[in-house]
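ok so for the tutorial part 2 we go from a plain amino acid sequence to predicted structure tokens. step 1 is just haveing the sequence, like this:
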Amino acid sequence: MQFLLIFLLSSLSFSSVSLTEVSLQTLAAEAPSVQALRQRLISAEQLKGSLNRSFYPKINLSYGRERYTTGPYYQVNQPFGGIEAHVNIFNSGKDSLENSKREKEAEIASIDQKMAGAHVLAEARKAFAHFAYLEEIESIIVEAMKFNETNIQGSQKRINAGLTSSTDVLDFKQQKISLEQEFEGIKYEKGAVQRLTSVLLGYNPSEEIQIQYSNSHPDHHTEKTPSSNFGQSALMRRASLLSDISLLEKESASRWWTPKFDVFGYALRFTQKEREYAEPGQRNDVSIGFRLTFPIFDGGEGFRKTSATQAVSKAYEHQAFQRRLEVQKETLDASKKLELAHKLIHGAEDNVKVMEEYREGILREYTRGVKNSPDVLQANDRWISARSKFAEVKKNYQFARAEALYLESLSSPK
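step 2 — the prediction. this is what the tokens look like for a chain of 414 residues:
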């Protein structure tokens, strides 16, 4: 039993979270930053429907007691209270404007949530691509270290055979040290990317995660070009909604002088000080009436507020136009970047094949004594550079693809 408990505890302590691109969609939707905006959306949704609620009666119940210490009612202690209600009949359209404003604010909250989810998903895809790139670089360095170790042994044999000087092996030993340092740096950077991904998706950064992803050749993917339907973009829709809200605020502010009509009623019991009747029943008052309120002058505050909201409205119009230009630029940039990455990746792949043959040729000539250690070192460095460049352009393609998918996901506000 003790061994079983130790085994279970050790299994739990070494358990880790496995992340794949397939699971990213769900994980991104549950990220803390997205959940925060989801709660804001729920809050905005709760405020919708204010127009209907504005016509519901507002009812208040009240109860209290009052004890007097002056006048003819000294030491008198009497209750007061009752029920009051008032109903909004007409408010010059201000309630409708407020309702429209809340509807648009809820739509903005929905777009913000969608954008946050798309942003987290895009950043996670980039983190995955960078992690896969680092793993590929790590494998390149490991292979280069094995090749270098073979060269160290080969050069030592040449020295023992008297075919070269003792310094021949030092070149390879120096490269071994350099590769080991680079290997350690890659290990640290992989850990940093894992911690970044953990925080992005809402995991504890100290919790171990396993990223299962590889930067595939673009031929293995169906390329997604961002939509050119700028007018339907969620980015554009959000800017337009902000402009619409400012127009509604301007319209509401401009109606500061318009009348308001209410119907009210109450059934109250007043104190003897307010209704000078000794009997409690004589102080009961039941009333039904209406009130028409007509603002005449508010010190110029309404006019000032109207002018201010008009300026804000124009500012949002300019922002909406600027945002449209930015969306067009971002979409075109993403498309061009995707095309460029696709073109570069084929050249980098061909370059790797050339350098594979070159390194093998140099090693054969070194074995025959035609080439020396600096030639082998240079060939190995060029091979590492070619393989690293190939890994980098594949990563850049995945970055461009992530940006294209991000913009495509926002091509419609729905």
